[in-house]
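Appendix C: a fully annotated inverse folding record. The material below is reproduced so that readers can follow the format used throughout the book. The structure is listed first as tokens, followed by the designed sequence.
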């Protein structure tokens, strides 16, 4: 962080800007592309509500949000985006889903702040504002350095985001021994984990040592044999930490397989990706401590509480992110002398939002994340 500040002069601001006189009297319109009808309408309406909270927080009548319904359809997304541009709008927050980006390169004069965390932009006019894999691996890289971890392996499921993980490993320049791609089928997973952890060899080592002692003339061999029989394996694995690039039940299946192969989080660092404080992890005591990068939990809890108080329901993670993106756009407008154009996202800038610190440069957004561990059935902040 100190290094960044030395490189550039910047101002890190909190979200609560209340400057009204800075902007011109005319309205500055920001588009919003979200699904308001169809199967994903609940997500869209939650985002709309969080954007309202953000606009109320900014408290500047010059800013106007203009929402449009994408219906989670790429063709409709393009059409309603055209409607926004015909209204003179040059900055649009959204769309939500990666598939809805595919035609937006046709509107090259408009900047889209997509809510996806994918890092494979379809066009230069699309900036992905989600917490991408590279940002998460940068935080993991920092944790590895702080703990002087020398040997790290990745376990990545053979699913649609595996390419994103592989690119992030390259982009973050994190040093690893190997990235193992595993089958999410539970019937195949354990066999793969056994191979990765050399379980068969370590189990055989134990049996061989017990046999050797039984045939030996050592005075204390009975005590040693009794002690060995309480173990499952003998011998170490060739890594100090494991980054499990997975979520939900699939993540739990991997940790269970690791425990079965006698690899414990008490001996090796179990690290995963952003889990958004999934409370079901608190109950998985055998897999603790478990480490992961994430948004700022205190801010997340505060936002959730404020949202619930206003709407009597809890927000989703995209609502949390969209709240910050409104503040980010407003801040960049101020920094750009109230001119709304693509130059807003070129200059290297830091913005402190609810999620954490956004770093903007050359039409890309990355996040400087916090780091947490699950231990004693609690989420504990590391940095």
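Designed amino acids, in order:
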């Amino acid at each position: 962080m100190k290094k960044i500040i030395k490189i550039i002069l910047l101002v890190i601001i909190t979200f609560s800007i209340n400057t009204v006189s800075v902007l011109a009297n005319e309205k500055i319109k920001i588009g919003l592309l979200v699904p308001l009808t169809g199967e994903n309408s609940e997500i869209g309406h939650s985002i709309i509500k969080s954007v309202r909270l953000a606009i109320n927080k900014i408290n500047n009548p010059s800013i106007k949000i203009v929402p449009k319904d994408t219906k989670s359809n790429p063709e409709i997304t393009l059409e309603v985006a055209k409607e926004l541009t015909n209204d003179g709008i040059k900055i649009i927050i959204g769309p939500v889903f990666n598939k809805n980006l595919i035609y937006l390169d046709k509107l090259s004069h408009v900047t889209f702040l997509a809510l996806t965390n994918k890092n494979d932009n379809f066009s230069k006019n699309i900036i992905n504002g989600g917490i991408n894999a590279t940002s998460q691996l940068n935080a993991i890289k920092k944790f590895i350095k702080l703990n002087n971890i020398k040997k790290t392996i990745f376990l990545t499921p053979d699913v649609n985001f595996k390419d994103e993980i592989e690119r992030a490993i390259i982009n973050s320049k994190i040093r690893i021994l190997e990235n193992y791609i595993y089958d999410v089928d539970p019937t195949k997973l354990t066999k793969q984990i056994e191979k990765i952890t050399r379980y068969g060899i370590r189990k055989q080592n134990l049996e061989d040592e017990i046999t050797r002692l039984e045939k030996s003339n050592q005075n204390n061999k009975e005590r040693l044999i009794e002690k060995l029989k309480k173990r499952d394996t003998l011998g170490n694995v060739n890594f100090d930490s494991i980054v499990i690039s997975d979520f939900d039940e699939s993540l739990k299946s991997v940790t269970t397989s690791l425990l079965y192969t006698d690899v414990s989080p008490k001996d090796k660092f179990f690290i995963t990706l952003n889990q958004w404080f999934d409370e079901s992890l608190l109950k998985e005591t055998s897999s603790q401590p478990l480490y992961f990068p994430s948004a700022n939990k205190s801010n997340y809890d505060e936002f959730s509480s404020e949202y619930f108080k206003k709407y009597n329901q809890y927000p989703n993670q995209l609502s949390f992110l969209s709240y910050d993106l409104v503040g980010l756009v407003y801040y960049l407008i101020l920094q750009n002398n109230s001119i709304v154009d693509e130059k807003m996202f070129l200059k290297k800038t830091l913005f402190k939002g609810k999620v954490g610190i956004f770093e903007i440069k050359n039409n890309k957004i990355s996040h400087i994340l916090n780091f947490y561990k699950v231990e004693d059935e609690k989420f504990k902040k590391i940095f």
